[in-house]
Structure formats: C-alpha cells, structure tokens
User: Which sequence fits this backbone?
C-alpha cells in the first residue's frame, strides 16, 4: 500500500481538528444554514441569540404565543462567538428585535476574564449590531446565577451592572433582569429550578423568566 494512502486519513483528521479549532461551533452554524435551506426563516422575527439557556428553551414559542420567535442560540457560546458568527446568526435575518443571553461562558475562559471583560465584549457586539441594524431594538437578558458557577457570581454581578448601565444610556435597548428573581430571600440561588447539572434550567426556571421577559418583547 502506498504511504500516501496510509497517511491521508491521518492528514484529514488533523485538518478537520485544526478547522474546528479555528472555527469553534461550526457544526452548529452549519446546522442553522441547513435549517434555513429546508425552510425559509420567518420574516421580522424576534431573534434569540446566545448560549445554552436559550438553546435549551426548545418550546420558547409556546411561552410567547403572541410573537414570532427565531432561536439561533448555540450551547457553549460566548460573546466572542456571537461576534465571530454574526453574519450567520444575526445579519442574514431581518429581525424586528434581537434578544441576547450570553456572558456566563465568557467567565469560564480564565482568571483574566472579569465582569468588565464581559461588558467590553458585549459593547463590541452591540456596536456591530447597531452598525448593520441602526433601528432594530436590542435586549440583553442578564446573566443568571447558576449554582454550579457560584464562584463567578461577583464577576456576573459586575458584568450585569455595567451592561445595565450601558443599556440605560443607549437608545433602542433594554436590560432584562432575571438574576434577582432567581434568588431566594437569603440570597441563595433556588436549586429547584435547575437540572441535575446545576447549570441549565428546568421548566420551572423558564416559568420564572417568561413573565419577566414578556413585557420587553416588541409587538
């Protein structure tokens, strides 16, 4: 057998691995492209982007029956990934509103990532959106207090505080606080609204979110 045929599969695996490193989450992005090829996305939807708290909300449309929802969130993503794939998950659509849940995963990127880091990344994303969609309303859903990420709570609160301040000063934006309603009176995170991994929410968690988010959605 020729040596090139022995090493060709190894080369293909190496190139594939290198591609995934250069383009993290490319499988999820390709799946979105595939879905759009099978059925044209709705016009003027409320576009959800971000990480797994939106990705796992499989029945989100049933929580907001008066709205057309398009969910283009992908689990594990950080704000840098939303920026990286903005053409695919934001700009190819014609949203009436963009709702973002992201930032939690950024904080797991190393000790150098702070609440201010999340804020700075969010501002970059928002400016990118605003450049392409000058008049589309943008809403940010605050980072939630996950029991498995208690050590990040101070950074989460700082990031939420900075983003809230920014949104209050910026036209056509809304800050949606789901952080405080997920805490008990003593400040502890409600454990019963999470799955066994203590990171992702169960239906009870989304039932807390629904009446908080609903008033901010554009009709």
Assistant:
């Amino acid at each position: 057998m020729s040596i090139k045929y022995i090493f060709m599969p190894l080369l293909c695996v190496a190139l594939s691995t290198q591609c995934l490193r250069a383009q993290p989450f490319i499988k999820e992005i390709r799946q979105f492209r595939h879905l759009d090829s099978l059925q044209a996305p709705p016009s003027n939807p409320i576009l959800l982007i971000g990480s797994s708290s939106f990705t796992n909300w499989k029945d989100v449309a049933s929580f907001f029956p008066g709205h057309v929802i398009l969910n283009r969130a992908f689990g594990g993503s950080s704000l840098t990934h939303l920026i990286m794939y903005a053409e695919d998950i934001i700009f190819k659509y014609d949203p009436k509103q963009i709702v973002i849940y992201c930032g939690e995963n950024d904080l797991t990127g190393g000790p150098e990532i702070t609440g201010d880091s999340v804020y700075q990344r969010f501002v970059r994303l928002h400016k990118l959106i605003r450049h392409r969609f000058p008049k589309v309303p943008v809403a940010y859903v605050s980072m939630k207090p996950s029991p498995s990420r208690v050590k990040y709570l101070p950074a989460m609160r700082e990031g939420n505080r900075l983003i809230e301040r920014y949104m209050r000063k910026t036209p056509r934006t809304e800050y949606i606080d789901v952080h405080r309603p997920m805490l008990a009176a003593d400040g502890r995170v409600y454990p019963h609204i999470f799955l066994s991994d203590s990171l992702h929410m169960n239906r009870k968690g989304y039932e807390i979110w629904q009446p908080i988010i609903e008033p901010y959605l554009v009709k």
About this structure: DSSP finds nine helices and five strands in the chain. Confidence is low (pLDDT under 50) at residues 10-17.
